[in-house]
């Protein structure tokens, strides 16, 4: 149908506007008349009539158009496309020029075609002269490429957006084990590729994918479809996404129905989501529930009446047609009745037609801008030459609203259009009604759906489940089973690990200052735990220490009062002073074990503790050596005189050396230990090797040697057995105390551990004073008659200057 601008132009300057329109009246598969294509044709004519009538849009300018049938065949679509480029009608060439800036082809813009494969072909030709092409149905993502298709626009969203909508829809219903079937063309293959990619990124698995056969031979096609249906049934997949042309979808679903597959969900791509030929399959509801994404549509007020007029008077439709140039007539059009248009009811009525209508308006608005038209003064700049590349710039810039639908294009030529999510509700007379249960907008991150609007065709009336394995519980990680991401086993995260939502396959360790129970999704803050003087146990320890110091003071007092007596000669003098001083120091060091540890406290407390303890022990050892036979056997009086001092110095030196090694190697430090659940234990870490244990071993050895010496002394000499007995008793007690201490200390944990050491220290003090000084004090206080040299048979502390032992053997 060709109508040239000249017929309508009221302006002097003839304006040409040509539209390529696809009428699928000769579908290759069935060779049947396609009403959808015809409706698009009518909606375009309707739009042009409206624009021609309008006094505000393009006032005084009349648009003309051409409509060509592409027959869904690239070879057919080629011919008119070539002719668009030429300057004259029925001419198929472009004259050679060096510069096509001022080249004016026969048409300024093209609408269509609907098929993505044809759009790619046409766009490649039109790109040459930058003629704007606006498709109303080509959704292939390939066409978003601005480098390859600089003059292509469309009024439907691209398949990438559709795939995103589908993936979101699947995840809303928790389906991640899906099958994907596509048609064997540009649309299907491209959609499959994008969908699989997107689904994978959202942790979904396309468990089965197949290309629907396009074999022209009916029986072969049926056979292949049966195989696909069998696969779907055996693989137990309950959600199937189908990107297909309506005819392919129809053929497949008929086979599925005949195979008795029930209770599944079928997700329709925009291409067949509102297709009457699929909706008319009898008993289709048996296969399960069909939901789909449908391109958002709008109302076209007056279109119904327009269609009625056309149908009522088919001859009118043919008027003005100029068939002299050999274009074919629409033979089926005249035999249409209104009933052919009444089949599509519901909101999907104008799904495909509205986008054609919009495309025409885009061109009108662009032209309006280009001609500097003014709606109020009803004037357009008619003298202006219109070149396609100029129009292209305006098309890219359009921004208007039509029947409350916003129309503009993104940089890649895509509209801001989303989808309606529709559900096929089976009506009583075997037909389907398309019920919208939600919508998708590319600029909104979330689907907006109302699940309760869907009636599920399953046994329980609930949405079917399509998952390889059930979701793990919170706090569990996934162990993948096989190659698919969706098939896994679940395992609890251990304590102090948590399950991070972003990484379902791993348990993430909690940071040091946090803790978590097993199977947790978060970490909790740990409480700090440390010893404080005000706790019950430390307070008790402090009280005991005060008691120990008090008894030391009392003992010292009693001894001082009775100085000069034989008993005093037995215990008094330098050894007592040394022991009292070092024990005071020892007791003071306990304080550092009961307060809140700091780095300084940790560094100070052990040397203080061990040095003072060593001095006490060394003093007693010196005393033992001096008074025992061993000391006696040393025939050098000078040496014997300084034996005690030497013994103390030697042991301090050894201790100092060990301490140096310790502090050089691995000094004690403040540690925030997280070994206990829920808390951070602040305590001193006394590295056991070579530090703590060697110091302890040294003191232990000192006590042991001392103990041994008292016995050896006894063997060689019967004198001084009182002192020797006292000392050996004290040493045995000390050995027992520290022998018990070591395993207790080594196996205990917690803030109270350092109190063990205090306790052992206190016990040692009481052992020394109890065994060594208490008997003497008892005699001084309660049995003064025993305070004689005979009783003590001791050596004086300060031997006479001549070096002779002043305790005669006969005594
Ligand atoms: C255009 O105007 C004519 C007469 O003014 C009217 O009959 C026709 O319905 C109008 N067409 C449209 C599409 O508005
Ligand atoms: C379209 O125009 C409206 C106002 O008329 C404006 O708010 C909007 O941002 C424009 N959109 C684009 C893409 O330019
Ligand atoms: C969802 O649909 C049901 C049934 O049509 C309706 O009763 C309900 O109000 C809807 N909910 C929302 C949030 O729109
Ligand atoms: C599909 O549905 C059936 C019946 O409800 C169920 O047994 C099966 O586990 C489902 N398949 C998947 C993969 O979830
Ligand atoms: C091509 C086309 O539909 N042209 C229309 C332009 O407007 C006049 C009325 O103003 C119509 O009669 C034409 O059909």
TrEMBL record:
Domain spans labelled G-protein coupled receptors family 3 profile: 537-796
Family statement drawn from the similarity comment of this UniProt entry: Belongs to the G-protein coupled receptor 3 family. TAS1R subfamily.
Keyword Cell wall biogenesis/degradation assigned: no
GO terms for cellular component: plasma membrane
UniProt feature coiled coil, ranges: none
Location within or outside the cell: Cell membrane
Pfam families listed in its UniProt record: 7tm_3 (PF00003), ANF_receptor (PF01094), NCD3G (PF07562)
InterPro entries registered for this protein in UniProt: ANF_lig-bd_rcpt, GPCR_3, GPCR_3_9-Cys_dom, GPCR_3_9-Cys_sf, GPCR_3_C, GPCR_3_Ca_sens_rcpt-rel, GPCR_3_CS, Peripla_BP_I
Keyword Calcium: no
GO process annotations (BP): sensory perception of umami taste
Database matches in PROSITE patterns: G_PROTEIN_RECEP_F3_2, G_PROTEIN_RECEP_F3_4
Membrane spanning stretches: 541-560, 572-594, 606-622, 643-665, 695-714, 726-746, 758-783
Protein name per UniProt: G-protein coupled receptors family 3 profile domain-containing protein
Lineage: Eukaryota, Metazoa, Chordata, Craniata, Vertebrata
Primary localization: membrane
Membrane topology annotation: Multi-pass membrane protein
GO MF, any single term: G protein-coupled receptor activity
Highest taxon of source: Eukaryota
Keyword line: Cell membrane, G-protein coupled receptor, Glycoprotein, Membrane, Receptor, Signal, Transducer, Transmembrane, Transmembrane helix
């Amino acid at each position: 149908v060709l109508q040239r601008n000249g017929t309508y132009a009221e302006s002097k300057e003839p304006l040409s506007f040509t539209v390529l329109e696809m009428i699928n009246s000769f579908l290759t598969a069935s060779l049947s008349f396609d009403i959808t294509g015809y409706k698009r044709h009518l909606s375009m004519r309707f739009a042009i009539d409206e624009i021609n009538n309008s006094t505000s849009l393009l006032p005084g300018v009349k648009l003309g158009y051409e409509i060509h049938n592409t027959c869904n065949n690239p070879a057919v679509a080629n011919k008119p496309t070539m002719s668009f480029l030429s300057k004259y009608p029925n001419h198929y060439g472009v004259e050679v020029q060096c510069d096509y800036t001022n080249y004016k082809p026969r048409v300024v813009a093209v609408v269509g075609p609907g098929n993505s494969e044809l759009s790619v072909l046409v766009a490649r030709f039109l790109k040459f002269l930058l003629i704007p092409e606006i498709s109303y149905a080509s959704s292939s993502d390939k066409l978003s490429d601005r480098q390859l298709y600089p003059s292509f626009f469309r009024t439907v969203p691209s398949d990438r957006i559709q795939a995103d909508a589908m993936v979101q829809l699947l995840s809303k219903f928790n389906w991640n084990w899906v099958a994907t079937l596509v048609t064997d063309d540009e649309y299907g293959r491209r959609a499959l590729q994008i969908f699989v990619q997107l689904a994978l990124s959202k942790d979904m698995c396309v468990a089965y994918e197949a290309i629907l056969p396009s074999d022209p031979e009916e029986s072969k096609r049926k056979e292949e479809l049966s195989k696909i249906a069998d696969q779907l049934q055996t693989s137990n997949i309950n959600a199937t996404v189908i990107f297909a042309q309506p005819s392919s979808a129809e053929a497949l679903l008929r086979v599925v129905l005949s195979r008795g597959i029930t209770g599944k969900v079928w997700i329709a791509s925009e291409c067949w989501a509102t297709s009457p030929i699929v909706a008319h399959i009898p008993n289709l509801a048996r296969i399960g529930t069909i939901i789909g994404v449908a391109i958002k549509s709008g109302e076209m007020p007056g279109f119904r009446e327009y269609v009625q007029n056309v149908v009522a008077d088919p001859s009118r439709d043919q008027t003005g047609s100029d068939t002299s140039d050999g274009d074919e007539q629409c033979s089926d059009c005249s035999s249409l009745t209104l009933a052919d248009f009444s089949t599509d009811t519901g909101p999907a009525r104008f799904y495909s037609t509205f986008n054609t209508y919009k495309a025409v308006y885009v061109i009108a608005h662009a032209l309006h801008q280009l001609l500097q038209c003014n709606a109020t003064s009803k004037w357009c700049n008619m003298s202006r030459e219109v070149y396609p590349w100029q129009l292209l710039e305006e098309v890219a810039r359009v921004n208007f609203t039509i029947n409350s639908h916003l129309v503009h294009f993104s940089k890649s030529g895509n509209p801001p259009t989303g989808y309606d999510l529709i559900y096929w509700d089976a009506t009583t007379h075997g037909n389907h009604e398309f019920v919208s249960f939600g919508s998708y907008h590319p600029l909104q991150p979330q689907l907006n759906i109302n699940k309760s609007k869907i009636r599920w065709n399953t046994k329980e009336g609930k949405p079917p489940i399509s998952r390889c394995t059930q979701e793990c519980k919170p706090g569990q990680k996934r162990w993948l089973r096989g190659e698919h991401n969706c098939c896994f086993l679940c395992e609890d995260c251990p304590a102090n690990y948590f399950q991070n939502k972003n990484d379902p396959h791993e348990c993430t360790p909690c940071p040091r200052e946090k803790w978590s129970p097993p199977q947790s999704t978060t970490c909790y803050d740990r409480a700090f735990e440390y010893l404080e003087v005000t706790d019950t146990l430390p307070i008790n320890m402090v009280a005991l220490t005060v008691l120990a110091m008090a008894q030391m003071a009392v003992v010292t007092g009693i001894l001082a009062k009775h100085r000069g007596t034989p008993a005093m000669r037995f215990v008094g003098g330098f050894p007592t002073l040394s022991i009292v001083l070092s024990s005071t120091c020892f007791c003071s060091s306990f304080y550092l074990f009961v307060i809140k540890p700091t780095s300084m406290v940790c560094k100070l407390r052990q040397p203080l503790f061990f040095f003072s303890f060593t001095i006490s022990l060394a003093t007693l050892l010196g005393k033992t050596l001096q008074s025992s036979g061993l000391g006696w056997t040393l025939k050098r009086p000078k040496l014997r005189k300084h034996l005690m001092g030497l013994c103390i110095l030697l042991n301090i030196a050894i201790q100092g050396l060990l301490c140096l090694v310790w502090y050089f190697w691995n000094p004690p430090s403040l540690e925030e230990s997280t070994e206990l659940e829920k808390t951070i234990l602040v305590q001193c870490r006394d590295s056991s090797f070579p530090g703590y244990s060697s110091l302890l071993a040294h003191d232990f050895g000192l006590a042991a040697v001392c103990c041994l010496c008292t016995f050896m002394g006894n063997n060689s000499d019967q004198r001084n057995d009182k002192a020797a007995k006292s000392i050996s008793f004290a040493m045995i007690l000390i050995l027992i105390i520290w022998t018990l201490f070591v395993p207790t200390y080594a196996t205990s944990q917690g803030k109270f551990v350092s109190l063990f050491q205090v306790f052992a220290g206190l016990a040692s003090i009481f052992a020394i004073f109890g065994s060594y000084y208490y008997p003497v004090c008892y005699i001084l206080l309660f049995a003064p008659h025993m305070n004689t040299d005979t009783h003590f048979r001791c050596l004086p502390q300060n031997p006479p200057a001549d070096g002779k032992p002043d305790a005669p053997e006969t005594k």
